[in-house]
Amino acid sequence: SKSTVRDEAVVSTQSTGDKPPLGSCANSWLLRHDGTCWHANEPISTLSIVPSEGDIIGVTFDHVQLQFYVNGKLADGCVASNLHTLVYPCFYVDDGAIIDVNFEKFYYEPPQGYSCIMKEQDML
User: Fold this and answer.
1) pLDDT tens-digit profile of 73-82?
2) Are 8 and 92 in contact (CB under 8 A)?
């Protein structure tokens, strides 16, 4: 997804609700425009690559670990681990910012082993 300076990318559990500011509770993880990652209303880390206007932010989640990418490169520093829960992608912009979101046909190839978002399926 293309981003502008004032956007935020989030994953959250269903119990988070739908009102910003996300990242302020224990059920959401937030990447802010300045590269800081928030969880439970606390900054937990900062990306090694700070996104700027026009950059493409990628997110991978394998039901255990959440990672962020900037223009196809892993942005170390904001990794959430041991999530073992169902999460949902959320996006938030303000101050007239524009965000384009794409869940398939990516600009950069996903890391090996990842593809588009897949719906959770009940195996029973």
Assistant:
1) 998 876 677 7
2) yes
